């Protein structure tokens, strides 16, 4: 199944809304959130099939993001990368030169 990786550094709500309403059919969207989610917030988030939210500690966010990029790109499943700021767009745009995938800015 194709995968879209979403690297979220500044609020996860807009990226999740995109994945709920505009993600391509039969595609899984994995949102990596920089930092933690409070238990109360996690309890409010309704689980949705093919949409995942994963909180990653700040210090290991980019190494974890890069490893997931390599994993899904190597498996041929990576369809696109979504980011929420210009700095991330530049970083992931460099990664995307290694495999022909689009990198989108979703703010």
Can you walk through the features of this model?
The chain is an alpha/beta fold. The protein has a single domain (3-105), classed as Rossmann fold, CATH 3.40.50.2000. It has four helices and five strands, in the order βαβαβαβαβ. A five-stranded parallel sheet has the order 3-2-1-4-5, sandwiched between helices. Helix 1 (13-21) links the parallel strand 1 (3-8) and strand 2 (28-34). The chain is globular, with a radius of gyration of 13 Å. The relative contact order is 0.23.
Distance N to C terminus: 25 Å
Spatial sequence of strands, sheet with the most strands: 3-2-1-4-5
Specify the overall morphology.
globular
Rg is 13 Å
Secondary-structure content class: alpha/beta
Write down how many β-strands occur, each being a DSSP E stretch of 2 or more residues: 5
In the CATH hierarchy, the architecture is 3-Layer(aba) Sandwich
Average pLDDT, rounded to a whole number, is 87
Number of domains: 1
Binned strand content: 25-35%
Largest sheet: 5 strands, parallel
Work out the helix count: 4
Order of helices and strands: EHEHEHEHE
CATH superfamily: Glycogen Phosphorylase B
In the CATH hierarchy, what is the class?
A: Alpha Beta
Low-confidence stretches: none
CATH fold topology: Rossmann fold
Helix content: 25-40%
Keywords:
single chain, alpha/beta, Rossmann fold, five-stranded parallel β-sheet, 4 helices
Draw up the topology in text.
Blueprint: E1 3-8, H1 13-21, E2 28-34, H2 39-44, E3 51-56, H3 61-74, E4 78-83, H4 86-95, E5 103-105
Parallel strand pairs: 1-2, 1-4, 2-3, 4-5
